[in-house]
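Bench notes, afternoon.
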Amino acid sequence: MISRIDLRGDALPEGTALRDLLPRADFDVSAALEKVRPICEAVHHRGDAALIDYAEKFDGVRLEAVRVPAQALADALERLDPAVRAALEESIRRARLVHRAQRRGSHTTQVVRGGSVTEKWVPVERVGLYAPGGRSVYPSSVIMNAVPAQEAGVPSMALASPPQRDFDGLPHPTILAACALLGIDEVYAAGGAQAVAMFAHGTESCAPTAMVTGPGNIWVAAAKRYFTGRIGIDTEAGPTEIAVLADDTADPVHVAADLISQAEHDPLAAAVLVTDSPALADAVEKELETQVAATRHIEDRIVPALRGRQSAIVLVDGVDEGLRVVDAYGAEHLEIQTADAAAVADRVRNAGAIFVGPWAPVSLGDYAAGSNHVLPTGGCACHSSGLSVQSFLRGIHIVDYTRDALADVAHHVVTLAEAEDLPAHGAAIKARFPGDEQVSRGWKVPEGE
């Protein structure tokens, strides 16, 4: 059901050579880019009419309007299963605890007497949040997008989720209920690249946003790339990934269950076990057979995911080698199920989120750990972070110098301007100190030194 890659015996290669040995899904955003281009341009030129046409083409429903009525949000919350409501409320509460603590305050550095630089953090003015609605419904993604934006102080936000034929063209009612719980009253029945285009360009019903965040399929990722530079994005999220670094202390029942938990998202989902224990590898393979047979979404998601080139059991010589492998892989979700798991986790450099020990499975992070589940995929954890309050803030430097403080460094500024052949830069300093020979000359090495 799942392939093996044996990296034992020989010294592990470095850098890209090691990454090239590891399993990874085919996810060609560049190829999808040309397919989303006409969609994005149509929304730009035709606005809501294009969104309505694409909803009919891709979602099988003809909308009367793209914006979701306020009453639909209220009705969805009223009809929400009380147990689901309680779970969503607890997820929101925990996410707020974690994300509220991330908020940065302004900080002033006194560089010299009379000269300071202050860094203040300002939220983006308006963001578009995307909640997928394809194979599954993701109210948890509403929480993971909205809570950090709210805690950052974003004053205006809108959410888009695909229209559902089974619900009269509205997004899934659990999505709407989650919006209502969070106080998001601007919601649109729009999915895929056309939703990103709506946020980027604006339409008759939706004002443009400065940023778009949230996971989605390859068309959403391609549209984000298309608009990069015009709007801010969080990441080009690809298929979900789990990597488990485990030794012979790990429970194969837990490991197999966690691999399956991510495989059920999508046939391109990646499930990777890195271990130095052949016995554990054998036991996990047996558990996969047993547990997969007892669950749902077997043939359309789980089995293709586990059998795909993106999933594998990787055998290594030891935990140290395993750490090198998982750092090269840069997983969206990384579980550490080894002896002294906390110490091993502390050595990891590349991961979207790390889950320590047998009682912190990825499923906890998906819903109720308080952490964020919008995370970098496809190895992007080697250079990018998951969604947080900081994603929605911009750092602005405020430079405040007195005359004396500028005079003290003016000759250095003039010297550097002349060294870069930018005389007007130096002239802007000299104009403030007419007749000052030291400023006019810039800084020179004293004779004899």
